[in-house]
Fold each of these.
Amino acid sequence: LSPPALCRFHGAMAGALLGDCIGGEFEGKELVRLQDVIGAVRALEEHRQEEGSLMYSDDTAMTRCVAQSLIIKQDFDEIDMAKRFAEEYKEQPDRGYGNGVIRVFKKLLNPNCNDVFKPAREQFKGKGSYGNGGAMRIAPIALAYPDVQDVKKFAKKNAEVTHASSLGYNGAILQALAVHHALQGELQKDNYLDYLIGEMQLLENDEKSLSDARDFQEFPYCSRLKKMKAFLTRRDVSKEEVVNELGNGIAAFESVPTAIYSFLRCMDPDPEIPENYNGLERTIIYSISLGGDTDTIATMAGAIAGAYYGKDNIPHSWWKSCEAYKDTDYFGEKLRDLYCSHLMSS
Ligand code: F2R
Ligand code: MG
Ligand code: MG
């Protein structure tokens, strides 16, 4: 078995960074005009933005922690992971973290905390967070483990450090699977979605998932993945329909499916996006144009598209505009080494 090419690992890390940095300007705006997003990327292409000047947010700050922990520990280590999240927050608290997750970091920073999953379990009166913070940072897990069982197991554990609601960690598992599958190469949209639906059907049928979903709707992930399948058969799906049916919010179930849809939809040209943009560029532009939690939806869509198309499809000018852009090559290379070592030992 040969591992995927290095450019896919570089692409996933760089795509995630681009989505966060470019999407950040639009986060929280419900109405985002496609022309404004195109204007923003044109400014990068015309070098109207200084090198490294687009700041990354909590999405990338936490993704970097996941990558660093995996690389240094050469495996998943929840204690090291939790320590990195909390220390990163302590050093740079103004990266735009969710209001709830800050309480988890503060508890993790207490030297008497000896169960790193406990603070997350205490969130929201014991219900745990359903925010998309577990999913937004998960790409490095998919890049480190070739075995899908490991991807699922460690995506869940990683998310559970901050997100104890199954609605939160199931979103992280779905996003990790979406990156993992895109990394493997050429894909058919229907097969890709059937695979994800099959995996989520198993997850959403466990007792905790059924109970957590009761406050919202039955099978929040599967129902959106199925809706997406129907959307992909039509060429006239409006932004409003996507936002109404899939979501563009801070909850994981209202953003992970939307990121996956953005990637799949943008495999084909879009009459509203200039033809010179490739599938990866279209994915970033389109996902931001949906408004709402733009940095997070675009970072997740960017990670999937980057894993699929590879770094060669990322415009240099976009990449170089992002803070700490050079690090994505380092992370991509080291995570691929880890992926290969896991492949050799299996
Ligand atoms: N937080 C933001 N953006 C908005 C404000 C930024 C900041 N205040 C600023 O202006 O600088 N973006 C980032 O947060 C999202 C990821 O959040 P995460 O890590 O999941 O955090 P949290 O706090 O766990 O959940 C987010 C919110 O979701 C609601 N929520 C979650 N679970 C809930 C539950 N069981 N019951 C009720 N509400 C629940 C809460 O409102 C949480 O605060 C990303 O968008 C990232 O970019
Ligand atoms: Mg953010
Ligand atoms: Mg966000």
Amino acid sequence: AENLKKRKIAVLGSRSVGKSSLVIQFINNEFVESYYPTIEATFAKSVKYKGAEYDCEVIDTAGQDEFSILNSKHAIGIHGYVLVYSVTSKASFDMIQIVYDKIIAFCGVTDIPCVVVGSKVDLDSSRQVSPQDGEKLAREINATWVETSAKTNVNVGKVFELCLAEIEKRAPQTGEA
Ligand code: GDP
């Protein structure tokens, strides 16, 4: 349909934080314990948000390092970013700022539509990153923050809704130059 809006969303973050699991849960509504990623994978799903239908293309950096996607053909035309850390890994959390800085430098802009995701919240007993730290970082980079579990399907759809919201927030308003 011609009222279908295309939105390209890239999912980035350290290895093993659960990027593929998050994407697979979003696309297929399942948690696959042993999902073997190939290289990069792109997935499509249409999402209703605020009365409009969005044709989302989700790019998973499966099996590659955090930055490889920025140099790939998939990087062209990305509208929004989902930056994932695991609440059980302080190292993966520290990586978020580095990935963010890299995107900013790569895109040559000062602000990008971005959602910071603390994953694996079902593993609360192994938590290394507090919700407060997650929220604070997100505020500093002008992003939205949310905690999720791909395993127990907590806030998975929400991640992509929030990303659409971040994208729409920055989209030029009708009537403006
Ligand atoms: P990726 O390398 O970032 O794509 O991470 P994967 O999606 O391959 O997940 C890495 C590991 O974490 C796998 O063993 C997953 O089963 C596990 N995992 C992913 N998401 C969750 C989650 O929400 N909860 C738990 N407990 N484990 C998860």
